[in-house]
Write a structure and sequence with these properties.
4 domains; extended; alpha+beta; 7 strands
Length: about 500
């Protein structure tokens, strides 16, 4: 028994010695040439960092977006390059040694022979298989996380901080703030994913070399058709009936009088099967095909419109231009109308000062009982400032000084409300004006409706005429019934009763 124990110990010691010598030889092969050594360092450092940060991510700790770029995009590249350099360096070193010995070139290249009957080779092969399995697991996890990271709102909105800051901020305050950027900008399927990533390469270089346009031009060129993105959630076929919409505006008088406009919107809709086509979404009825030509980049000047109805009848409308004839207009590219031609700011919505202040007053974020709060707020927001810090300071100080000077007693009684109003005004300014990207009030037009821009009136202006004399009418009743226009809401009965 003692003999067996001694033999086992000797055998175990022999095996350890062989493994040590084998590893020592392998390390010697690697350390003898710079290429393999650099590859080893690159692979080790990248692998350790990747595993460490992956563990931190799995444990639920927040990863900075720039750390995400490092661990999911940059480090895996160095890991793969390092793994390639190790055997390449060993092979080149072996070739160099053979050539030094005067062997022919054809014998200088290493011979790859796999004989699993050799115990030593079998063990090395087992180690190689285990390491390969671990590396494949790590790389597959990293690849999955990389795709997931590139599809995240963090990657889209926060990596290119200065460039995408306006779009990211307006996105977070929009009705689509829970929808990932890629759902609208890429949509489902691999082809558009590949197209977007290839397009993104050019955008990365534009950011690196500071050649991107300021502000970012709209509409986005080569945007995926809305039928493949928007209509994954919104179905024009289901837009039926009418909707009541109440628009509240506040006057610039001392009482900030609330004025109500009440519209009965003819949402409309329909589909090809029923042939129904009515209301606002008549334009998106799949039985109708509307094309148009715009002579400007922002699609605000539309002189030519083409309608193809359910029966295949085609009508073309043309609005005479001061400088362009019909023949010249027809040389411009035409576009098939879709959701984005009216809903051109569905997510990145930039408010005008009047509109933003009205919303804040309606939501009671700003106390509407502060005298002239609407008027002074709009004036402060529309002032010209050289940069954002200056704007935020002057907006706050301007509001405080106004009430201290003109309504000192109200400032004492309502100081908290005034300071809160100043904070809301600073948020409004910071969310809509970005001097670093040359975005000011009204830089981006919103084509919904026709109050702050031409919108509907780009086509519905009574001047687009067909050969048979028909025109695209500017008839408000086609889209809505006006039930009330900027009327003061009646006071509640209890408030209207005289005090005794």
């Amino acid at each position: 028994m003692k003999l067996f124990t001694n033999f086992s110990k000797k055998f175990a010691l022999r095996e350890k010695l062989i493994r040590f010598i084998t590893m020592k030889r392998l390390f010697a092969k690697i350390s003898r040439n710079l290429l393999s050594f650099v590859g080893l360092l690159s692979a080790l450092i990248s692998g350790v960092l990747i595993l460490t940060i992956l563990a931190i991510d799995i444990l639920g700790f927040h990863i900075n977006p720039y750390i995400g770029v490092l661990v999911y995009l940059i480090l895996p590249t160095f890991l793969v390059i390092g793994l390639i350099l190790i055997p390449l360096g060993i092979a080149l070193e072996k070739r160099r040694v053979h050539l030094q010995k005067g062997l022919p070139k054809e014998q200088a290249l290493p011979k790859w022979e796999i004989d699993l009957n050799n115990p030593s080779l079998r063990k090395r092969f087992a180690w190689f298989a285990a390491v390969t399995a671990i590396l494949l697991s790590v790389m597959s996890t990293v690849t999955y996380k990389a795709v997931e990271f590139m599809d995240s709102v963090t990657f889209c909105g926060q990596i290119c901080h200065e460039v995408m800051k306006p779009e990211y901020i307006t996105y977070t305050r929009s009705p689509h703030s829970r929808v990932h950027c890629v759902s609208c900008h890429i949509g489902p399927g691999a082809p558009w994913f590949v197209k977007s990533k290839l397009s993104g390469v050019g955008q990365v270089f534009a950011v690196l070399f500071n050649t991107y346009e300021q502000p970012i031009p709209t509409p986005v060129k080569n945007l995926r058709p809305a039928q493949e993105t928007c209509e994954q959630c919104h179905w024009p076929q289901k837009f039926h009936g009418q909707q009541l919409k109440v628009i509240t505006k506040f006057s610039e008088d001392e009482k900030n009088t609330a004025l109500k406009t009440v519209l009965l919107l003819k949402t409309g809709g329909g589909d090809k099967a029923s042939g129904i086509a009515e209301g606002i979404h008549w334009h998106m009825n799949i039985a109708n095909e509307i094309s148009y030509i715009a002579t400007d980049e922002q699609h605000q000047n539309i002189p030519w419109v083409r309608l193809k109805d359910l029966r295949g009848n085609v009508t073309e409308y043309f609005a005479p231009q001061e400088s362009l004839s019909l023949e010249q207009v027809l040389k411009y590219p035409s576009r098939r109308m879709d959701c984005m031609d009216c809903h051109n700011r569905p997510t990145h919505i930039y408010r005008l000062p009047e509109e933003a202040v009205d919303e804040a007053l309606l939501a009671d974020k700003i106390n509407p009982k502060l005298p002239f709060i609407k008027k002074i707020s709009v004036e402060l927001l529309r002032e010209s400032y050289s940069n954002n810090p200056e704007a935020l300071e002057k907006i706050e100080q301007g509001l405080i000084q106004y009430y201290q000077t003109n309504y000192s007693y109200i400032y004492v009684a309502k100081e908290e409300d005034i300071l809160r109003a100043a904070q809301i005004l600073k948020e409004i300014y910071s969310s809509n004006v970005f001097p670093e990207m040359k975005i000011i009030w009204g830089t981006y037009t919103n084509n919904i409706g026709h109050q702050n821009s031409l919108g509907c009136f780009r086509c519905h202006d009574n001047t687009h005429q067909a050969k048979d004399g028909k025109v695209i009418r500017q008839d408000c009743d086609q889209c809505h019934n006006l039930l009330a226009f900027e009327e003061e809401a009646p006071k509640p009965v209890i408030e209207a009763l005289p005090m005794r």
